[in-house]
Design goal:
Helix content is 55%, strand content 0%. The protein is mostly helical. The N and C termini lie far apart (91 Å).
């Protein structure tokens, strides 16, 4: 028996399956890790492009609708300026500063 195992190292014995029951449940961590990485990338991209769309502007935003109405001639320049001022002002300034 000693002559058969004379050149075999302990690592080779372990790799041959002696006393090894398989990878175990931790093998599930590898696909789970990549699923988490992909989900995080998707969430970061969604947050980065939320409200802007991929083209850089929402076509249904109030300012876009106002600009479209002005371009179509539905409102004049004075009404456009006054409505744009209301839409772009800071909401905290509308309260009159009383808090």
């Amino acid at each position: 028996m000693d002559t058969l195992l004379a050149g075999v190292t302990p690592a080779a014995t372990a790799l041959a399956g002696h006393g090894w029951d398989g990878p175990g449940p931790w093998i599930l961590l590898f696909p789970l890790f990549w699923i988490v990485v992909v989900l995080l990338v998707v969430l970061v991209l969604r947050r980065a492009f939320r409200g802007r769309g991929w083209a850089g502007g929402r076509p249904d935003s109030p300012l876009a609708v106002l600009g479209r109405r002005y371009a179509e001639g539905a409102i004049d320049a004075e009404e456009y300026r006054s409505r744009r001022a209301v839409l772009t002002e800071d909401p905290r300034e509308r309260r009159g500063g009383a808090e």
